[in-house]
Specification:
alpha/beta; 3 domains; 13 helices; 15 strands
Length: 444
């Protein structure tokens, strides 16, 4: 079906994972479908039934021309399917929007859309840029992909000292040498297969990494990059100095119209807790106890009776720590609901329940929560809250407005539960930024 108008821009959108579609790409489509002809590619990775229904509805409502669900590049079979998709998309696109340009599939699609030399490739932030912020703000840098080894760089002056620092870390941890060795071999093998052998077999091309791919975001292969806060702009300029055309915009969900402050009715007594850490490993008992103490303290300060707990969609069903927290809170007479994050939309939950407050570990879920929730809802980021690396500090989430910060190791007070209004109304909508990028004749 072709309902394209001559005046519409031809746009290709690639969504790398299903759980960020409703937060980033759906509002983009809703905002621009009258002026865009959209073809959508979405990775078959944690796509909820709700999202699948929305995809069909978008086609029925003629907000997108088509969508295709594709697979990650993890086998010969998936490579062959991506090749078929590449060949089947015959349009020459004006804009290609995606979440990064460092992955192999990103680069395959970028190569394809660049058949039209006028096509603008635009990277839009879909997650926390913690690797970039860490490089700028932290006193140490995690040197390998799997975050197994980290070392302080303050006193390291040459490669001999670096080797000693790394070996010291390896010897200090049980089984770490074996883990690092296996991860190193696995990473090298995967890199050989995915960046060289498969691409050469199916696309007659190899995809070499560059030094900026470690950040997993914008590695200089795009024409423009869009982020949501000033600190991310600063971090990117320092960490990826060859990047040009870095733009700041409001979050795509910021177009949601909120009722006047005095008319907002808060569902008092309900707290949403977003857990975005320890997806595949257990949280230490000490952290579990600190989380329950923090939740109980917040509940006392904000008169909370009911608690909704939402884990990251990729959290393994085998980890037990979320259930342990639920059990402890239930023993303290709280009404606790463990939300199915795969089948339940975060933005939908926030709009439905209009929570008194939303807390969680550093993640984009808090950025979404701050953007979508009413101005009477407090949103608080709890840092030093997990066992993951890097060490969590407020900088990990950027300089997003509307979010309080509290340390899990310290007592939470009223000052950590403020309902913060977004002060900076001068940040342009993402649609306006994209229009600026497209109209800029010097972008290439």
């Amino acid at each position: 079906m072709n309902f394209s108008d001559m005046g519409k821009l031809k746009v290709l959108i690639y969504c790398g994972n299903g759980y960020c579609f409703n937060e980033i790409y759906l509002p983009l489509i809703d905002l621009n479908y009258k002026s865009w002809d959209v073809d959508l590619l979405i990775n078959d990775y944690y796509i909820s039934n709700i999202t699948r229904i929305k995809l069909n509805q978008l086609v029925d409502d003629k907000k997108i021309k088509s969508y295709k669900i594709i697979q990650s590049l993890h086998s010969i079979n998936s490579y062959s399917k991506v090749k078929d998709i590449k060949e089947s998309l015959s349009n020459l696109f004006d804009i290609f929007i995606l979440g990064s340009d460092s992955g192999v599939i990103d680069r395959v699609l970028i190569d394809y859309v660049k058949m039209n030399k006028k096509c603008n490739v635009i990277i839009v932030q879909t997650g926390l840029l913690w690797r970039v912020h860490q490089c700028l703000n932290s006193s140490y840098y995690v040197s390998n992909k799997n975050n197994v080894v980290s070392f302080d760089t303050k006193n390291i002056v040459n490669y001999y000292d670096i080797l000693l620092a790394v070996l010291g870390k390896l010897v200090a941890k049980k089984h770490t040498i074996k883990i690092v060795f296996l991860n190193f071999i696995r990473a090298k093998f995967n890199s050989l297969i995915y960046h060289y052998i498969y691409p050469l077999l199916f696309f007659r091309k190899i995809y070499r990494k560059n030094i900026y791919d470690v950040y997993g975001f914008s590695s200089s292969r795009s024409d423009a990059t869009i982020v949501f806060d000033k600190s991310s702009v600063k971090a990117l300029k320092q960490c990826v100095p060859i990047l040009k055309n870095i733009h700041i915009s409001a979050h795509p969900l910021s177009y949601c119209q909120k009722p006047p402050y005095e008319l907002i009715k808060i569902n008092k007594g309900i707290l949403l807790v977003n857990f975005s850490h320890n997806l595949n490993d257990e949280l230490e008992d000490d952290k579990i106890n600190k989380w329950t103490i923090a939740i109980e303290r917040i509940s006392e300060l904000a008169s909370i009776n009911d608690i909704h707990i939402r884990c990251h969609p990729r959290t393994s069903v085998n980890v037990q720590w979320p259930k342990k927290i639920v059990n402890i809170l239930e023993k303290e007479k709280f009404n606790v609901v463990l939300i199915d994050s795969i089948s339940t939309d975060l933005t939908g939950s926030i709009l439905k329940y209009n929570y008194s407050g939303i807390i969680g570990s550093p993640s984009t879920s808090l950025i979404v929560s701050s953007t979508v929730s009413s101005n009477k809802t407090f949103v608080t980021c709890i840092f030093d809250s997990s066992s993951r690396s890097p060490e969590e500090k407020p900088w990990i989430i950027g300089s997003i407005e509307g979010i309080n910060f509290a340390d899990l190791n310290q007592k939470i007070e009223d000052e950590h539960l403020l309902s913060l209004k977004h002060k900076n109304n001068s940040i342009p909508f993402i649609s306006d930024v994209i229009k600026l990028i497209v109209s800029n004749e010097n972008i290439k």
